[in-house]
């Protein structure tokens, strides 16, 4: 048995989809354990580009079991559309298993997500408006609806009735139109019928796979800095995208987690609002944004761009149990004369090496940088560490030094083939 958790170690969009897809070639099982269709995982192979939202990245390989585990919040309509989209492009032969305990996202969650954002005004989170926060809130409030409810028309009727009574009160309070029970029930009960064949106890399935000695890949969504507990609260998502959350969110024992691979870009980006200490505000940000195609997969928003922040990375390593790093979009940095890496922050005249808890402090920290010479060479055809320009080698080694983590993969382009592995770890 071998297990690997892939986590985003920054603010999401680090290229987890690409690495999961690459490693999935060796896996027997690929698991999504939290988040929902707020994620957007882009995968390129054989000249084709696929953007996955809630379906695990192993879906392209018929031999792989794909699990949507209990910690996810799943939008049934969107999941079926995503599957239909894949099928329309020839991806028909797949294995998919959806946890009977996963919560579902309903239309009122999306409405409430939008309304909360609007009411927050300039304090808005910048959510993806996919209803993820309200669905997770209902779960915690014990008025959520799960897959096991959706696929049983009688149970669904009863739980939807009681949840909708409360949700309609909320909608009314916020000045939104109330929803009719029959409209939601009649539409969603059909989705339940279609999804039923995939729904099972995925925790049990995973235990059986572990006992068989399978290779299991846990595909993280979002990133550690967006963690509800450890991220830049309140500018975070509503679940925990850390390695530590995987056992809970997938229903397996913590002792079964072997390694945690942190995916990080060679620089930093974030979408939405919130503090971003190493953000770049000049034309260098545009250069990186254009070369790195830094626009949201889900919302198409231009991403904010910054220098690599090793304080944030080190923090992510600690709270998420990261022991290896995969350095993504390394090729994007070619052509930049001087590169900077943030190694510490200065706050009130003191040098600090960790993320402060309050937004106020995070907005005030001054990043301290090591400056390094860049390289001009195009590195998109590089196939080994030795082929990298000297300054690129130094940049990579510096990251290892500052994050106390070994870089085991670096990526020099979007294709599967442009992935260079420096060590066997799965
Ligand atoms: P929510 O998850 O839609 O509630 O959004 C909360 C915050 O997480 C916002 O800043 C989003 O932009 C961010 N976010 C959610 N999912 C992703 C993702 O997959 N990549 C990057 N940012 C994300």
Written account of the structure:
- With 426 residues, the chain is an alpha/beta fold.
- It folds into three domains: 2-98 and 201-259, Adenylosuccinate Synthetase, Chain A, domain 1, CATH 3.40.440.10; 103-195, Adenylosuccinate Synthetase, subunit A, domain 2; 264-421, Adenylosuccinate Synthetase, subunit A, domain 3 (Adenylosuccinate Synthetase, Chain A, domain 3, Alpha-Beta Complex), CATH 3.90.170.10.
- Helices cover 33% and strands 21% of the residues.
- It contains 13 helices and 20 strands.
- It has helices at residues 16-24, 76-88, 107-120, 132-141, 147-150, 153-173, 181-195, 202-212, 246-250, 283-291, 310-320, 359-364, 390-403; strands at 2-8, 29-32, 41-45, 48-52, 65-68, 73-74, 95-99, 103-104, 199-200, 215-219, 259-265, 268-270, 304-306, 308-309, 324-328, 338-347, 350-352, 366-373, 406-411, 419-421.
- It has a ten-stranded mixed beta sheet, with helices on both faces.
- A hairpin with a 2-residue loop joins strand 16 and strand 17.
- The radius of gyration is 21 Å and the shape is globular.
- The mean pLDDT is 95.
- The chain binds inosinic acid (IMP).
- Inosinic acid binds at residues 12-13, 38-40, 125-128, 130, 132-133, 221-222, 226, 235, 237-238, 271-272.
């Amino acid at each position: 048995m071998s297990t690997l958790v892939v986590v985003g170690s920054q603010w999401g969009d680090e290229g987890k989809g690409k690495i999961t897809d690459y490693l999935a070639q060796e896996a027997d099982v690929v698991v999504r354990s939290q988040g929902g269709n707020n994620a957007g995982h882009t995968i390129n192979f054989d000249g084709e580009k696929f953007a996955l939202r809630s379906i695990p990245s192993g879906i392209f390989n018929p031999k792989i079991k794909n699990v949507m585990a209990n910690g996810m919040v799943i939008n049934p309509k969107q999941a079926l559309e995503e599957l239909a989209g894949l099928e329309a492009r020839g991806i028909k032969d797949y294995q998919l298993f959806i946890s009977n305990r996963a919560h579902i996202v309903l239309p009122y969650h999306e409405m409430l997500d939008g309304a909360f954002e609007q009411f927050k005004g300039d304090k808005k989170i910048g959510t993806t408006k996919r209803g993820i926060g309200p669905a997770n809130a209902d779960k915690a409030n014990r008025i959520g609806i799960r897959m096991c409810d959706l696929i049983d028309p009688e149970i669904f009727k009863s739980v939807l009735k009681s949840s909708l009574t409360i949700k309609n009160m909320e909608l009314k309070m916020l000045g939104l139109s109330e929803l009719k029970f029959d409209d939601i029930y009649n539409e969603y009960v059909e989705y339940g019928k279609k999804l039923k064949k995939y729904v099972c106890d995925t925790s049990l399935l995973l235990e059986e796979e572990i006992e068989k000695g399978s290779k299991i890949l846990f595909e993280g969504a979002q990133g550690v800095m967006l963690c509800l507990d450890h991220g830049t609260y309140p500018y975070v998502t509503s679940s925990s995208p850390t390695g530590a959350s995987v056992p809970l969110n997938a229903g397996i024992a913590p002792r079964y987690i072997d390694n945690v691979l942190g995916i990080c870009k060679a620089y930093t980006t974030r979408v939405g609002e919130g503090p971003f200490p190493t953000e770049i505000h000049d034309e260098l940000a545009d250069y990186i944004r254009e070369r790195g195609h830094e626009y949201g997969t889900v919302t198409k928003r231009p991403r904010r761009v910054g220098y690599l922040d090793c304080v944030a990375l080190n923090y992510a390593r600690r709270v998420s149990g990261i022991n290896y790093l995969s350095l993504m979009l390394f090729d994007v940095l070619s052509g930049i004369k001087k590169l900077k890496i943030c190694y510490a922050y200065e706050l009130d005249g003191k040098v600090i090496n960790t993320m402060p808890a309050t937004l106020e402090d995070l907005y005030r920290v001054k990043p301290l940088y090591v400056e390094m010479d860049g390289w001009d060479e195009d590195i998109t055809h590089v196939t080994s560490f030795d082929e990298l320009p000297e300054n690129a080698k130094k940049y990579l080694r510096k990251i290892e030094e500052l994050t106390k983590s070994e870089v085991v993969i670096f990526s020099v382009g979007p294709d599967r083939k442009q992935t260079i592995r420096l060590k066997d770890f799965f």
